[in-house]
Amino acid sequence: MQLHISPSMRSLTISSSNEFFDSMKIKVAPPLISYRTLFHTILILAFLLPFVFILTALVTLEGVNKCSSIDCLGRRLGPRLLGRVDDSEQRLVRDFYKILNEVSTQDIPDGLKLPNSFRQLVSDMKNNHYDAKTFSLILRAMIEKFERDMRESKFAELMNKHFAASSIPKGIHCLSLRLTDEYSSNAHARRQLPSPERLPVLSDNAYHHFVLATDNILAASVVVSSAVQSSSKPEKIVFHVITDKKTYAGMHSWFALNSVAPAIVEVKSVHQFDWLTRENVPVLEAVESHHGIRNYYHGNHIAGANLSETTPRKFASKLQSRSPKYISLLNHLRIYLPELFPNLDKVVFLDDDIVIQRDLSPLWDIDLHGKVNGAVETCRGEDEWVMSKRLRNYFNFSHPLIAKHLDPEECAWAYGMNIFDLRTWRKTDIRETYHSWLKANLKSNLTMWKLGTLPPALIAFKGHVQAIDSSWHMLGLGYQSNTNIENVKKAAVIHYNGQSKPWLEIGFEHLRPFWTKYVNYSNDFIRNCHILE
Ligand SMILES: *[C@@H]1O[C@H](CO)[C@@H](O)[C@H](O)[C@H]1NC(C)=O
Ligand SMILES: *[C@@H]1O[C@H](CO)[C@@H](O)[C@H](O)[C@H]1NC(C)=O
Ligand SMILES: *[C@@H]1O[C@H](CO)[C@@H](O)[C@H](O)[C@H]1NC(C)=O
Ligand SMILES: *[C@@H]1O[C@H](CO)[C@@H](O)[C@H](O)[C@H]1NC(C)=O
Prior knowledge:
Blueprint: E1 2-5, E2 11-16, E3 19-27, H1 30-34, H2 38-52, E4 59-61, E5 64-67, H3 70-82, H4 87-105, H5 118-128, H6 132-166, H7 170-185, E6 208-213, H8 217-230, E7 237-243, H9 245-257, E8 264-269, H10 282-289, H11 291-298, H12 312-321, H13 329-332, H14 337-340, E9 346-350, E10 354-356, E11 373-375, H15 400-405, E12 417-421, H16 422-425, H17 430-443, H18 454-460, E13 465-467, H19 485-490, E14 493-495, H20 513-516, H21 524-528
Parallel strand pairs: 1-4, 6-7, 6-9, 7-8, 11-13
Antiparallel strand pairs: 1-2, 2-3, 4-5, 9-12, 10-14, 11-12
Helix pairs in contact: 2-3, 2-4, 2-6, 3-4, 4-6, 6-12, 7-9, 17-18
The structure holds 2-acetamido-2-deoxy-beta-D-glucopyranose (4 copies).
């Protein structure tokens, strides 16, 4: 917890280092600042009251550093605020601290009428001749109410953001509908992809194969365009775009009408993979149909959440973990890559919320030292928040199975851009491990982990991960606005993981151009659907 009073003393910032969202600014009305009176001391101290309970409160005030108790604060603040003081005033201040201490532990009476503003408080005080104790009590009640209101509006904001993040924007929906329509009316949109003479390339290991699984056509177009435009050897690129049944026609139309030659694109729907059957993917069937789980992801998120016990940050991560996308087959697809592409040796698997800014062909030359999965680690790096993910951030270590098998301090790695050595993978039991842990988590009512597809992969790939340099893949552009722009420019791949996707209104404006750069605004479909206008 940190307290910062600005030099002008017009604002007071209370923030705590581990609760990112909890920081708040309280503006103190300027007219109250000018009097250097006892009243003012009261006001400031009363502000601090709710926070004094936290022993490590740290106060910074023009040269007043590292006060960690109210006594210290009082000693320092008193004379400073009062200007030159004599004994009687000092006694007054001392008495006042005594009152504050009493008030800070007292219950606030029910039905205490609280003024709505400080102006009203001041006028109430003049009219009713409050004694110092009543005054302090009212102040404290006001602050606590204010804090509650802040929290509630923060939660409301997070809920709104959650729904904004999980609904499909009008423009993207329009794009999908129009392209689907085009598929049935325009033979060119239905043309074979790739053209028949290039089909052998799809399983030729001399090419660089990328796999992208998504139902978002616009996002897919950005990933593919950015990869091709950033490549020094676009003629070596083969993209395998996998989508769901409902998006297939639209996705196919897009890539049939917007060639990225000399690169090659193949569009497939999950229903076209003979391998994806109930026998081979038993767990996913269970995941999608399990009633309790459907409720969990699609149900009422506020009900059952005790807002007085949670923090906005925990709540946000809870909401995110309940995003319906985590139960979709498209998301779990990556664990079946060796079976879906039986002839390929190496692929780079990409998420749809990334942009490629550099030639990725050197990825195929990275020595994976016999490992299966080349990934960036997420526990080291400049960005303290994004790069602080260890296993303990993903798993419930109170669960005996988790505690027995995993080390909470072990570094996690990221999905989004991974190089997979499928030949080595085929010799392992990664898929079986993944399945057995998914089942175990279902059986224990999702108490082992909540957040979708990464945790079971963190277990299944244990011992099979080779860390690659973090400049290959920069994370966090979708969950914080204070991303370092210089690093964004330098990264080979930037990843908008988090809620604030660049195609949503809640995306961060200053990070959006890195993505929109690859949206073709002169394309008729994009124009007619008014995408991000
Ligand atoms: C929420 O938690 C607080 C503090 O533990 C408790 O007093 C309150 O009864 C809880 N509310 C609900 C609805 O469970
Ligand atoms: C899971 O939840 C169901 C119903 O909510 C309950 O009957 C069952 O005992 C729970 N199982 C475990 C392992 O907690
Ligand atoms: C973590 O696991 C323990 C033991 O199974 C369980 O009691 C607890 O509810 C779990 N916590 C969460 C948040 O699921
Ligand atoms: C953008 O779309 C237009 C019209 O479809 C097309 O002529 C142009 O080549 C596209 N530009 C890029 C960079 O793909």
